[in-house]
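**User:** Hello, beginner here. Are you able to go through the protein record under this note? It all follows right here:
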Amino acid sequence: MTDENTNDQLTFQNPVDRFPSISPPKQDQPEPGLDEELEPKADRGEQSYRGTGRLEGRRALITGSDSGIGSAVAIAFAREGADVALSYLPEEEEDAQHVKSVIEDCGRRAFLFPGDLTDRDFCQQLVDQAVQALGGLDALVNNAGKQIAVEDIADLDDDQVTETFTTNIIAMFRVSRAALAHMPAGSTIVNTTSIQAYEPSPHLLDYASTKAAINNFTKGLAQQVAEKGIRVNAVAPGPIWTPLQVSDGQPKDALPEFGKSTPLGRAGQPTELAPAYVFLSSPESSYVLGETLNVNGGMPTP
């Protein structure tokens, strides 16, 4: 948590030390992991994100929005004036309730939809229920993801590969397809890809492959729906401190050095991603589509 008087996103600060360079202790959480149990705690913007009304009146569905990047985006969207439908796994209810309370404290509406995006039927039901609750849908953030580190491809079994692809990219097809049936001109879709799409880590073969697929999906879908006045873009995070990293997303021995190889010398905080999603969902980016916006602490990308 940060002090809103000295560390909000509108304050002029040195990015090297705007947030501390953390050395997380070795720790383990069962998948999918909770922000509540993360050490040290991540900054999701509860105190540090200030809104300026850029998404006033928007109705947004955000997947994977209980913790990490998704929760920071949900909080930022609410601070910018949007109502938000939160999609998350049932095991993440504690984190989701916290995000809901932050959104409601902003004077916006929050709706909770627990379920598993690997379930084809749930993807459709999620969109239908979100549309009904929100009274429409004009912003979608596909953020849910699965990341499990496996050092040797010989140990990367078919079940993990299938679940990673189903969660990260097949569900994105399904949710986007269902959402587009409801989205008017001026709507936006923002997908979460990763630095892994450009610099794949050898222990994240399946995860990195899905992130490269998300880049291509974004660029292709953007061209397909542009004439309808709907924009599709992506955000590619670098090493961001979230529960994904401690629920087998990284080798345990690597956690103390997580993010320190970036040019800024530190891992990013979820709240540092939020302005990118806000920009790509706001009218300010009306001529931006099919773009992947990298937010990665300076790691070079093509």
